[in-house]
Amino acid sequence: MSVTTSIHTFIADYLKKDTVSFHMPGHKGSHLYRRFGYHEFLDGIMDYDITEIAGADNLFQAEGIIKRVQDRYARLYDCKKSYLLINGSSGGNIAAILASVSKGKQLIMARNCHKSVFNALTLGGIRPVYAYPEMIEEFGISGAVSPVEIERLIKENPDAEAVMITSPNYYGVCSDIKAIAEIAHQYGKILIVDEAHGAHLHFSAALPPSAIQSGADLVINSTHKTLASFTQSAALHYNTDLVDQYILEDKLQCVQSTSPSYLLMTSMDISAEILERHGHELMDEWVRNLTAFYDRITSIPGVKTMGKLKGLDWTKINLGMGELGIAGAQLDKIFLNDYNIYIELFTGDWIMAMTGIGNTDKDYDRFANALEEISRKTRESGLEIQRTEHKVDSLVPPKQAVMFDIPVAKKRVKLADSKGMICGSSIIPYPPGIPLICPGERIDDDAIAYIQAMRNMGEKVIGVNEFGEVIVGR
Ligand SMILES: Cc1ncc(COP(=O)(O)O)c(C=O)c1O
To answer: Would 125 disulfide with which of 103, 164, 299, 468, CB 3.0-4.6 Å?
Structure first.
């Protein structure tokens, strides 16, 4: 692909369009900062890009202004300590796991964890024990991880040192973290929750409880995904006696840049200040706008939503128009091309519109108006409606029960020729970044067919290069 546009001109052109964002980041542009008077920061962004000058503190031994922000997060999230992350939740996940599980020991983990969790396994020489999320058959998507399954795995693997759960998952489905925390603690295990997609849950009683409220030991939040800090900023919350704080801090400095961005950290500071001062008002607005949106779209013919499914973080709007013959990928394209509405994710018959603290009532109106128009035009088109069905859910990992040692020496082979080989590098549909095949798993016919189906549907699969090759062990 030959590209003539620079990153700069691409973004400048994008900004000239009248777009609506139902994808990350959660701030949805500068309007929230302007609403609350942070013009000076926005207008002076280049000048705020400083380094560790005298008085600017040090992220890895925070005692001054950075510590003050971290304390602010700890207060906001009601936990012992919070750490600012400048390599996203990815860095936080890796540090949390390395601080909790020793080399050669096991981590009981949901198989639909983010790739950073799998990277932590490789880095730490940690062995996974997979818990498979339950399927929500009605929607054909992966759901919660059951506490009963976690208890069974703990009993079968008494040497496992920690449990890692992703909650909410990409669709917003939350696991029962309270029950899982009770079980983990009963057996003396550490519970780490990748709550990358749920940084906002702590602030509204209308949503499922946050992982900290539910008793998790270490919780990782991508504040950039749904709240108002910049992309790549995140927070790790520490609320336990089971993990040594100083070992955790050591792991954090192993996986993060030694030049932390003061732009990211300032945005963390501002996002926290906005939450402290206006959190109630903003969360109420968000819930009100969502409620009005859901109420309105229930009457649109052909639109199906997962709505307020039990345990769902319904700030993630999962909807489909399969009944009108429109698959998720098609709907995503219609929104983009005809309405300038950017959606976070599509899979099978579904799209997932990720709302954030920065979405306004106008965004929801444009979204609902577009849905009404698409529904009307499709029904009026006179074309015979072909019902789509949920054929491939790229977020449901196939079961790969057998784990081999993660291969060190590696080579490339065509995906089609890789049957029976041990995968050497994660194969990951993006989004959501959950490995379909992990290093150390054997590639079989089903997996090959699955990946080919996804590539044919136009979904991006990281780990398969432009020549259709994958990395395997020698
Ligand atoms: C479940 C989950 N965890 C962690 C991450 C990584 O978060 P970040 O992009 O903040 O590094 C992602 C990214 O999409 C994710 O989906």
So the answer is: 103
